Amino acid sequence: MTVDDGDREAVARFRSRAELPGIIDVHTHFMPDRVLRKVWAYFDSAGPLIGRPWPIAYRDDEQQRLDTLRGFGVRAFTSLVYPHKPDMAAWLNEWAADFAARTPDCLHTATFYPEHGAGSYVSAAVESGARIFKSHIQVGDYHPGDPLLTEVWGLLSEAGIPVLIHCGSGPAPGTFTGPEPIAALLQRFPRLTLIVAHMGVPEYSPFLDLAERYDNVHLDTTMSFTDFIEERNPFPRTEYARLADLGERILFGSDFPNIPYSYVHALDALERLDLGADWLRAVCYGNAARLFRMS
Questions:
Q1: Which DSSP symbol is given to 128?
Q2: Whole-angstrom Cα distance, residue 140 to residue 121?
Q3: pTM of the full predicted structure?
Q4: For the chain, percent helix, then strand, then coil, each to nearest 5?
Q5: Cα(120)–Cα(275) distance, rounded to whole angstroms?
Q6: What is the CA radius of gyration of the chain?
Q7: Helix (H, G, I), strand (E, B) or coil at 251
Q8: Which residues does the UniProt record annotate as the domain Amidohydrolase-related (predicted)?
Q9: What angle do helix axes 89-102 and 118-127 make, rounded to 10 degrees?
Q10: How far apart are CA 182 and CA 194, in angstroms?
Q11: Residue 59 near residue 110 (C-beta atoms within 8 A)
Q12: Residue 59 contacts by C-beta under 8 Å, 6 or more apart in sequence?
């Protein structure tokens, strides 16, 4: 998608209506180029985890993508990387650490996989300043309760570092997706700070239950409420009141650049929930600023 002045102006109008100082986007993807191109190829193929046409809206080079986010007024974002097999996570963490070092507005991101040595490289990432970790239960095809991750969860629980976790069964179910494995994980590590990606689509209500039960469970809005998701997995209107009640633990995420629509549509989709400007300000900026201790 070619970003023109109209796109930037549309986002600016949204920010003005909500009186936002900027946007914090907790769900964006920056990866090594060859990894990102493989991800894009998978989306292009409408693979089994996708199951429908999914055109990448912002298929640009890295600097153009950074310029696009900054042009939209995004003040902080993530470089969510994730492995799909052993022996990937450590070198992805090295890349992400370098990216964060040369990109000050990126929240230093890291990841992990159930493998021997995971505790060691996660500990190293924490010591080097990682501020958020990514776990992808669906793509990684692992159970969050895998014994090889016990040390990892303990480290991250103790450090209080958020883990953004794709654990819902959308866009297609995985072997270990759904709320039950996460409920079991939280019983073992009740202080763990989790951000449930995509509002837990399509198991919205059970993940809202977990957020009500555990004070450190958050949800991100990534792709939720957009026309693309509402077509197949609509968020139940009967749960809107719970969105309002949990407004301090919902964070804006976009899935940029891998979205099949314009960036502003993700923001407009939140505004049309009609939960008020205070809710929008908290979701799009304030909650993440507090969680990541940003001035």
A1: T
A2: 17
A3: 0.97
A4: 50, 10, 40
A5: 43
A6: 18
A7: strand
A8: 24-293
A9: 10
A10: 10
A11: no
A12: 1, 40, 257
Question: Tokens 């930037």 belong to which residue?
Answer: 8
Q: Which two tokens stand for residue 211?
A: 């957020």
Q: Give CA angle at 114 (109, 118), nearest 5°.
A: 60
Hey, CA dihedral for 11, 14, 20, 24, is it positive or negative? negative
Residue 283 gets which letter from DSSP? Answer: I
Amino acid (one-letter) located at 226: T
Strand 74-78: give its sheet, edge to edge: 23-25, 74-78, 106-107
Angle between helix axes 118-127 and 150-159 (nearest 10 degrees) is 20
Tokens 């039960």 — which residue? 213
Domains annotated on the chain, with CATH = 3-292 (3.20.20.140)
Structure token digits, residue 48 = 């089994």
Contact in structure between 50 and 42 (CB atoms under 8 Å): yes
Per-residue confidence in pLDDT tens, the chain, 295 aa:
667 778 999 999 999 999 999 999 999 999 999 999 999 999 999 767 777 899 999 999 999 999 999 999 999 999 999 999 999 999 999 999 999 999 999 999 999 999 999 999 999 999 999 999 999 999 999 999 999 999 999 999 999 999 999 999 999 899 999 999 999 999 999 999 999 999 999 999 999 999 999 999 999 999 999 999 999 999 999 999 999 999 999 999 999 999 999 999 999 999 999 999 999 999 999 999 999 999 7
Residue with the two structure tokens 């090295």:
94
Question: Taking a C-beta distance cutoff of 8 angstroms, is the pair 83, 115 a contact?
Answer: no
